What we know:
Blueprint: H1 2-11, E1 23-25, E2 30-32, E3 36-48, E4 58-69, E5 75-76, E6 97-101, E7 111-116, E8 119-121, E9 123-124, E10 129-137, E11 147-153, E12 155-160, E13 163-170, E14 172-175, E15 178-181, E16 183-192
Protein name: DUF4352 domain-containing protein
Amino acid sequence: MTITAVGITALLGGLNEATEAPDPLSQGAVLDQGLYSTKFVESRVKVERAENDYSEDKRFVELVFDVTNQGDETYSVGSPPEKLEQAYLANSFAGSLVKITPAFDKEAGPFSFAVSKGGETRQLFPGVTSQVIVRYQLKENEQPPEKITFDVASFEYRTDFNSTDPIWSMVATESGDKFFPEIKARVTLPVKKGDSA
């Protein structure tokens, strides 16, 4: 009877013995992250042509999202975290992209921004859907990956130990003296090469 009870408890996730695999999502999927509603538009190679004869073309791998800020305040576009255990501190959109595979060199980026009325911004306004770009620069002869997979975290509106007023915080679990984000979804996008890769 004890074995059965333990088995059922583990099955329901009560003993942390069974970790649920995150939902696998692909291009075009929409994910409710709590603070953000996110559509995974595409991943592509983007070429910025040299402005003159003394500079060179730049190539980027871009992740493209349609992001709606579902909160009541303006939040930052942000950047993917350098370390997984630091991710839980973020409430920015790109901060919720907690692991990107394959990993790019530090020199490659990431560079993150939203496109607004033809210009770039680092802010996501409440109730507004913005196109967000997260890009990595490729080296001169570096080939882009065939696909990119990333783990996405979510947020919940709750009180913090520092305050009685609720705030949006990343959903995370404590492990020892560290906090690790709970992975809401794992998204895989093919990288569109286009004619310019």
